[in-house]
Design goal:
The complex is a heterodimer of chains A (about 110) and B (about 120). Chain A is mainly beta and about 110 residues long. Chain A is built from no helices and ten strands. Chain A has one domain: Immunoglobulins (Immunoglobulin-like, Sandwich), CATH 2.60.40.10. Chain A is about 0% helix and about 50% strand. In chain A, strands 1, 3, 4, 8, 9 and 10 form a six-stranded mixed sheet that branches. Chain A has a four-stranded antiparallel sheet with strand order 2-7-6-5, with no helix packed on it. Chain A is globular, with a radius of gyration of 13 Å. Chain A starts with 8 loop residues before the first strand and ends with a strand. The model of chain B has no long low-confidence stretch (mean pLDDT about 90). In chain B, the strands form two sheets. In chain B, strands 2, 4, 5, 6, 9, 10 and 11 form a seven-stranded mixed sheet that branches. Chain B is globular, with a radius of gyration of 13 Å. With about 120 residues, chain B is mostly beta strands. The chains are: A mainly beta (about 110), B mainly beta (about 120). At the A-B interface, strand 3, strand 4 and strand 9 of A face strand 5, strand 9 and strand 10 of B.
Chain lengths: ~110, ~120
């Protein structure tokens, strides 16, 4: 299983762009990269997923370099409600082999 | 998105007893997973619940301690057996649907406290 490494915590201010990087040096060919958001007392919620290059949806962008050994979640113009733990997940879901990273606690300040 | 419910939402149990947690999904799913999240920690995969066959357990988790059933494509149970205070944790059910390739949906979790 690919092991992931993320910063433990990050601070930001409302309106700023936040970039959270995840390292996954042992990522396998069939592995996807997925990011989840978790608020206290709730289950994780899907944010975005990608395999390579760049993926963008209505809430975030995901940048994956050609070697796929890392990925960066980009949150544009964060608000206080974006304060949460963000997890980088690498694995082939169909094989049931996905590993959660330790998570990054993002704190958005006014 | 898939709607997942778990019962109970929380419980306080005595050492040595067992608790069965139910996970119900509003649609048929291909894969169901059970995770544990200890206070302040990340999620750890316990096992993959396979419909019609025995669950597949991750390293460090065994069937005798965490028996799992999955009688159909929308329901699964996880039993935490012979509980000790170290089992105090949040247990989460997660699913993947055929139309949501590679996207996992998570239930709200069951908060277990063992005294």
């Amino acid at each position: 299983l690919a092991k992931t490494t993320q910063p433990i915590s990050m601070d930001s201010y409302e309106g700023q762009e936040v970039n959270i990087t995840c390292s996954h040096n042992n990522i396998a060919t069939n592995d996807y990269i997925t990011w989840y958001q978790q608020f206290p007392s709730q289950g994780p919620r899907f944010i975005i997923q990608g395999y390579k290059t760049k993926v963008t949806n209505e809430v975030a962008s995901l940048f994956i370099p050609a070697d796929r050994k890392s990925s960066t979640l980009s949150l544009p113009r964060v608000s206080l409600s974006d304060t949460a733990v963000y997890y980088c997940l690498v694995g082939d879901i169909d094989a049931g082999k996905s590993t959660f990273g330790d998570g990054t606690t993002l704190t958005v300040k006014p | 998105s898939a709607v997942i419910s778990q019962k109970p939402s929380r419980d306080i149990c005595q050492r040595g007893t067992s608790l069965t947690i139910q996970c119900q999904v509003d649609s048929q799913v291909t894969m169901m997973f059970w995770y544990r999240q200890q206070p302040g920690q990340s999620l750890t995969l316990i096992a993959t619940a396979n419909q019609g066959s025995e669950a597949t357990y991750e390293s460090g988790f065994v069937i005798d301690k965490f028996p799992i059933s999955r009688p159909n494509l929308t329901f699964s149970t996880l039993t935490v057996s012979n509980m000790s205070p170290e089992d105090s944790s949040i247990y989460l059910c997660s699913v993947v649907r055929p139309i949501d390739y590679n996207e996992q949906f998570f239930g709200p979790g069951t908060r277990l406290t063992v005294l």
